Structure formats: structure tokens, C-alpha cells
Amino acid sequence: MLLRSIVDSSPDLFYYRDNNGIFAGCNKMFEEVMGKTSAELIGKSAEQIFPTHFLSEVLTTDKQVEQTHKPITIDVGYEVDGEKRWFELRKLPFINDEGDYIGLLGFGRDITSRKEAAQDLETAYKDKGKFIATLSHELRTPLNGIVGLTRMLLDTELNKQQRSWSNTIFSSAETLGNIFNDIIDLDKIDRDQLDIATNSINVSDFINDVVNFAGLITEQKELEFDIKRNGMLDIYALLDPTRLRQVVWNLINNAVKFTQQGKVTLECSRENRVEGPWLVIEISDTGQGIPAEQLSRIFDMYYKAPDLKGTNAIGSGIGLAVTKALVSAMKGIITVNSTEGKGSCFTVQIPLSLCVAPTEQSYVGRGLYILLVEDVPLNAEIATNLLEQRGHEVLWAETGEDALSFVETEDDLDLVLLDMQLPDINGDEVAKQIRSDSHFDKLPIVALTANVRSAEKELEGISIQGALAKPINTVKLDKMLADLFGIKQSECTEPQLKVSEEALEGIDAHLLDIETIEDFVNSMGLVVFRRSSQLFEKLNPQYQKELLTSLNTGDREEYESVAHKLKGAAGSVGLNDVQLHAKIMEHGAIDESDEVLKQWLDVLADKINEGQKALHLFLQQLE
To answer: Phi/psi at 6 (nearest 5 deg)?
Structure first.
């Protein structure tokens, strides 16, 4: 009786079913959730207890526990008293001394509040991302104007006071831009989406640009500025000039901020090491320094160095944390040495991939502002990574309505990449509505589609500039950008991935689209591609659950829609066999029987499991 009282007093639900699936016992919480007493439940099968739309998931997971003799944990939604509640359900096999399966134990905890909070948080993240992207664009435009016009003003004849004022305007605008860049990157770090977009740049020219800025802000504070160059720096290398400039400017700003008299020194060196050439940048000052006990925390988020000399030089607490994240994203190292009362020295080391000088046709100026219309998050992440790696800014719209809204409000879009199959409005209708406004006659639109011929047929009579097949091929992407905007990718001497026979050892070749994986890894890097594959793993259970729900509720159109999304997501990470199977599910969703659709769903789980194992092994062998 004591044990029964303990079980019944638990806020978690508990039940037990025998090896035939018959309920043999439960606690009070399970009775409450099911809306039945234990007398009404005991002796009944799952088919007699659970509603039809929920039954398939119950039987599938029960079978998995029985066959594997291993526990599983799943999140399930169940309607209780007319309201949907979420439970974290753990199913355990009940095994006797002989190792035979004799039943199943189920434990469930109500996680409705946690689930709703997670959904609210996800919505908030999306809203915050959209807000910051829009705000970024709105603030950068006038800031760029201020910086550009002030530079032009400084090239004219000015008296001493006018030049001082102009220098103050210029350095203040640059500083404000750097602070806002840190805020944007803080959001990207928070979402693990901090990416590097490399271009072929002349290292010496880059240093000259930094020197000009450093000279202005040190002059404003009447500090001495010294520049030292060591080694051959008149070279071209594949770097992200925006990110590297942000790093150096942050460090120079800090040096000036905490130095009341003396000088700031920028020393740039090229070091040839065993693993290749490195760029080493040192920013030192004669300022207040950092106490030894504070050095270990100096790169922590929101940490503020103490104001030792009463200078009121207090920062935001995010600059150095963002700087370290940027350096790490560039595969570099940042360190600091400091003596309290004598000054500090920050050292940034970045590996160099030497490149040929860009040709006259190469696009090394302003990046494009591209509206990406794509309803599958994984496809959007892949496309965004590819475009940002090429130096372009991407605005993502998940629906046709969002796309039309952005076209209306964003004045300087250069290109629309438009998925043809959206959840609310088809791509051809979105294109038609854009073209119906004469203001957007010249705005290039390129369709994104799994079937280029079909898309071109749908878009007959609508002025578009072409179509790209999904998953996106980087060669075709670059050709499209070259045809429309004269943009040409710089050639890099960094070795490109070429899959060897050893890398394919032990991998069933038909499971993966090796060519697509090779293409994406070469373009965006192994780390970024691995992150995309992890996103697929995160989204996959939800896709399978939505397919099962649509099957149980008889919603064939939803089954077709989810299969289409799964097909695109699988293709984006090179899961060839999963993509082909999802395509079969999509095309047969309307006409095939429930039995066939259920069989396809069972097969899908096995194919995803096999494909992900093969992809994990393949990526490990590429490291």
C-alpha cells in the first residue's frame, strides 16, 4: 500500500503494459490524463484506449522498445480536457532474469510550460533576427553616407579647426558603426551563425586603410601613433576584410580609449611557419593596463575592465568578446599581455591563404543585398551561407507574404531568389505581384526550384532572369551572379577538397550525393556544413512527426507538403537516398492508399538513420 501511495502521489504519469500490449497498471496522474479510471484501463489494449490519430505513434515507439530492448524518450502532445498538453515520455523495456521482454514501463512528465516557453523563445529569436537585420540596414545606409562624405570633405582644403571637426565626425561615425556591428554579431554568436565571407584582398592596402583610421582617432586625442611593418605584406590573400577590419578597429579603439597620454602602436608582420604563412597584428598602448587578476576574464561577454585612472572610459562589455569570436571564426588566435600602469598589447594571429590578384572583372566592391524567399530553414541556411561567403548581405523571407512586404519596404534590393513552392503563395504568384508594380520592373528575380523546366513553364509570361536548381550548385550560382552583375569569384591557391577513395571507404555510395557535399564543403567550409547537417538532424524528427500526424488525420495535402520540405532539406545536406524517397512520398501523397503511405513512412525512418550514419562517417574522414 505504501508503494502504491507513493506512485499515486507522483506528479508524473506512470503506466505498465504486458508483452501483449495490454494495460496492467497505472497511477492517478495517468488516469487524469486519459480521463479514465484504472479499472477502465486495465485489461485494454492500446487500440482500445488511444484515439486513432495518436495510435500509430504509440505502436511504432512500443515496437522499437520491444525490438531493441533499449529505452527511448520522446515528446508527445495529447489533448487533456480540451487543451493540448505536452509530455516528455520515457518508455523502458521490462526484462526478466532470462533476458526476455515481458512488458513496457512508461513514465511521463508534463512539459507544457517548457514547450510553450521554447516555442515563444524560438519566435522571439526569429523576430529579434528580423528586427536586427532591418535595423542594421536602416542604420548602415546613413552611416555609410556620413563616413563617405566626411572622407571627401577631408580631401578638400580646410583650416585647422574645420579639419579637427571633420576628423571628429569621421571617427565618431566609424566608432558608432563598429559598436553596431558588435551588436549584430552578438546576435549571430547567440544563434551560432557567425560566418566568414572571404575575398581576395591586398594585405598592404588593408593595413593602409587601418592606418588612416588609427591616425585620425589618435590625432583627435593628441596621442602619438606608430606603425611598423615586418616581412613581405604586398601580397593577396583570401580574407574577410570586413571582419578583420572590425577586429583591428575594436582593438585600436580600446587602446585609444584607455590611453590618456603616450602612444598607440600598430605592428603588422608576415610570419612563414611550417603550416604556412600567418598575418600577425599587434596593437599596443601606453595606457592604464589591466590588472593581472583580470586578464583571464578580459574576453568574457559583458566583462568591463576597471577604470583605474578615473578616465570614465567604460565600454559596453561586448567588444572584446565579439572580437575573440571573430578571430576564432577566421581560424586565428588572439592573446593579451599587460602590465598595470604601463599599458597593454593585444596580438592577433590569422592564417593566410595566398591568392592571385583579382582580375578587372572580379567583384571586390559592394556586396549585393539579396532577398532570399525560402520556407525550409535548412535550405535557407545553406543558401545564406553560400551567399555570405561571397560577400553579400541576405534578407530571409519564409513566406510569400513576407517576401512581398520586404520588396515594398526595402528600397535597395539587388536580387530576389524565389522558391517556387511556398506555404502561402506559390512562387509564380509572388513574381507576378512583384512585376505588377512598375517600380520593380528592373529588380532581378531568379527562381529556386527542384525542377527548372517546370518552373520556367509556370513562369511563362512573367519577366524573370533565370532559375537555379536545388540543391544549389555553386558553379551555377557564380555563373548566375556573373551574368547578372559581372561578379566573378577570386581564385584561391588554398587546396580544394577532392574526395579520395579512402574517404569513401565503408560508405554505401548511393546513400550520399558526394558531389553536392564536396561542392558545399569547398565553398562554405567543413565546420559550417557540419552545422547544417546538425540542423537537419534537429528538424528531421519534427518532419517525421508531421508526416505521421497528417497520415492519421487524413490530410493528404499536408503529407505532400511536408514530404516536399523533407526532400529539399535532405538534398541540401547531400542525403541522396532520403531525398529520392521523400520525392516518391511527395508524388504519391494524394493517390496512394493509407497502407502504402504508412509503409513509406516506416522505410523513411530507416533511410534517414542509414543516411545520417553515412554522412557522419564521411565528414569524420574529411577532417
So the answer is: -65, -45
Would the pLDDT of 376 be above 60?
yes
Has residue 366 got a pLDDT over 60?
no
Provide the pairing of β-strand 393-397 with 369-373. parallel
DSSP, res 355: B
Q: At residue 238, what is the residue type?
A: L
- The pTM of the full predicted model, rounded to 2 decimals, is 0.48
Residue type, 576: N
pLDDT confidence band for 499 (50 / 70 / 90): low
H helix intervals, 311-435: 319-329, 377-389, 400-409, 427-435
pLDDT digits (tens, 9 = 90+) for 315-361: 567 788 889 989 998 999 999 999 988 999 999 999 998 876 665 44
| Bridge partners, 343 (sequence order) | 339
Q: Give which of 216, 228, 229 is closest to 256, Cα–Cα.
A: 216
In angstroms, the CA 166 to CA 174 distance is 12
- Predicted confidence at residue 502, as pLDDT, reads 59
Beta strand ranges found along 286-342 (DSSP E): 333-339
Helical H segments across 461-524, by residue range: 474-485, 514-524
Helix or strand (DSSP H, E) at 535: helix 526-553
**516 CB burial (10 A radius; 0-12, 13-18, 19+):** buried
Number of neighbours of residue 525 by Cβ within 10 angstroms: 19
Q: Residue 270 pairs with which residues in a beta bridge? A: 279
Q: What contacts 269, CB < 8 A, 6 or more positions away? A: 229, 230, 231, 279, 280, 281, 282
Closest CA to 25 of 13, 35, 33: 13
List, as one string, the DSSP characters of 87-117.
EEEEEEEEE-TTS-EEEEEEEEEE-HHHHHH
DSSP characters over 41-60: HTT-BHHHHS-HHHHHHHHH
Q: What domains are there in the chain, each with its CATH number?
A: 11-110 (3.30.450.20), 112-194 (1.10.287.130), 197-360 (3.30.565.10), 369-485 (3.40.50.2300), 509-622 (1.20.120.160)
Q: Which helix (H) or strand (E) holds 249?
A: helix 241-257
d(CA 85, CA 79): 6
73 close to 90: Cβ distance less than 8 angstroms:
yes
C-alpha cell at 489: 569569384
**How far from each other are the two terminal CA atoms of the chain, in whole angstroms?**
59
DSSP string, 414-476: -EEEEES--SSS-HHHHHHHHHTSGGGTT--EEEEES-HHHHHHHTTTS----EEESSPPHHH
Q: Which of 342, 319, 323 is nearest to 334 (CA)?
A: 323
Cβ of 198: how many Cβ atoms within 10 Å? 21
Handedness of CA 309, 314, 318, 319 (dihedral sign): negative
Q: Which residue has the cell 512585376?
A: 435
Q: Which residue has the higher pLDDT, 244 or 127?
A: 244
Taking residue 16's Cβ as centre, other Cβ atoms within 10 Å add up to 17
Instruction: Say which amino acid occupies 416.
Output: V
